[in-house]
Design a protein that fits this description.
Blueprint (H helix, E strand, L loop, with lengths): L4 H19 L12 E3 L5 E2 L7 E9 L2 E8 L4 E7 L9 E8 L5 E7 L7 E6 L5 E8 L2 E2 L1 E6 L5 E8 L2 E2 L1 E6 L5 E8 L2 E2 L1 E6 L5 E8 L2 E8 L5 E7 L5 E7 L5 E10 L2 E9 L6 E9 L4 E9 L4 E9 L2 E2 L1 E13 L2 E16 L2 E10 L4 E6 L5 E2 L2
Antiparallel strand pairs: 1-2, 1-3, 3-4, 4-5, 5-6, 6-7, 7-8, 8-9, 9-10, 9-11, 11-12, 12-13, 12-14, 14-15, 15-16, 15-17, 17-18, 18-19, 19-20, 20-21, 21-22, 22-23, 23-24, 24-25, 25-26, 26-27, 26-28, 28-29, 29-30, 30-31, 31-32
């Protein structure tokens, strides 16, 4: 279950407990008769066709007054006790039980004199199996908690401190295998967080600070590091590395200063010699959207293509150099490919002299004015 999953589930259960208050908000003992129909919001309705449930009048049992609510199929929905035969004047107190529509128990809980959950709360799946066990004091979850899969296996166990997650949380799959460990401080992920594969091997090893991911490590099934990232305390990436299976760097992403302000640099490296293959600079904020993409050949020394974009349009020097690279007698050689194009874009418009070179050696030159119109050379 995720970092907010248990808290969200508990809030939902508290709402389930409190629905009895809403359901009887417009009712006083003896005013309407033996069957009082209620809509989805708990308001009294005259016609059963508008109802989602119904209740029966209060019945006195010693110093308490029992009440019962039912689904339209006749199965009980809710039963508990009030301090007076009026929901406006009394309080839900003592043991209460809520049921699923199929008749199975949904929740067992106890209310204090202010209609708040107090003590152990037990929640069940619709199928009848145990779902949640936790403790509430004056309506605030506090202490150890456990959740369970439909098949009865433990799903998660952890701890709440005055309504917030605290300490270590362990998560298990339906076969009972440990799949994750998280650590919380004041309701936020803080410290080491690990995720495991079904075979028990470590898949992810993270470190959080105040709910922000600071360090992320991902491992292969063989235990090799395949991804490593470092973020600042605001969750912004500083360095990101992705590795080949032999340990060499495949992709490197770093935060850099660019001609257009702070941005990122993403570099792809060759497996064999770690030479530069591709490089992309990127700045994207409320003021500018700029990128520069370059591809290399000849062990990272020759630019094979260059694409610069400003606000989504090609801008600046442009290179499309289809180079065929091969090796002969241990030397790296190159020949001109099918086409070479070079020129300059200005906000998506070709300007200045553009050169096209074909495999047969012929060269075509065109000149464009500032509006992109062809001009004689």
């Amino acid at each position: 279950m995720g970092r907010r999953g248990v808290r969200t589930g508990v809030i939902a259960l508290l709402a389930i407990f409190a629905i009895g208050l809403i359901a009887y908000a417009h009712y006083r003992h003896g005013e309407i008769g033996e069957r009082i129909y209620l809509d989805a919001e708990g308001n009294v309705v005259e016609r059963s066709s508008e109802a989602r449930s119904y209740m029966t009048p209060f019945e006195q049992e010693g110093e308490r007054w029992a009440f019962n609510q039912y689904y339209l199929n006749g199965n009980k929905m809710f039963e508990g006790y009030y301090t007076a035969p009026s929901l406006k004047d009394g309080h839900l107190v003592g043991e209460t039980t809520r049921y699923h529509e199929n008749g199975n128990t949904m929740m067992l809980a106890t209310g204090d004199e202010s209609s708040r959950l107090h003590g152990m709360v037990i929640v069940y799946h619709e199928s009848g199996g145990l779902s949640h066990v936790y403790f509430s004091f004056a309506g605030v979850i506090h202490g150890p908690f456990s959740t369970y899969h439909e098949n009865g296996q433990l799903k998660e166990q952890g701890y709440y401190l005055n309504g917030t997650r605290q300490g270590e949380s362990l998560i298990y799959d339906e076969e009972g295998r440990l799949r994750a460990k998280y650590h919380y401080h004041n309701g936020l992920r803080d410290g080491v967080a690990r995720r495991y594969r079904a075979d028990g091997s470590l898949r992810v090893d993270d470190y959080y600070k105040n709910d922000e991911l600071i360090v992320h490590k991902r491992f292969s099934t063989k235990g090799n590091l395949v991804e490593l990232t470092y973020n600042d305390e605001d969750g912004q990436r500083i360095v990101g590395l992705r590795y080949y299976s032999d340990g060499g760097i495949q992709v490197r992403t770093t935060r850099r200063q660019t001609p257009h302000g702070p941005g990122t640099l993403r570099e792809s490296l060759a497996r064999n010699d770690q030479s530069l293959r591709e490089r992309t600079w990127r700045v994207n904020n409320e003021n500018i959207d700029w990128s520069l993409e370059e591809k290399f050949s000849h062990s990272g020394r020759v630019v094979r293509s260059r694409r610069e974009r400003l606000d989504g349009r090609l801008h600046g020097p442009y290179v499309d150099n289809a180079v065929l690279v091969y090796r002969k007698d241990g030397r790296e050689l190159a020949t001109v490919g099918d086409l070479v194009r070079k020129g300059v874009y200005h906000h998506g418009i070709k300007v200045g002299t553009w050169v096209r070179m074909f495999r047969n050696g012929s060269v075509v030159r065109n000149h464009h004015d500032e509006n992109g119109e062809l001009q004689p050379l």
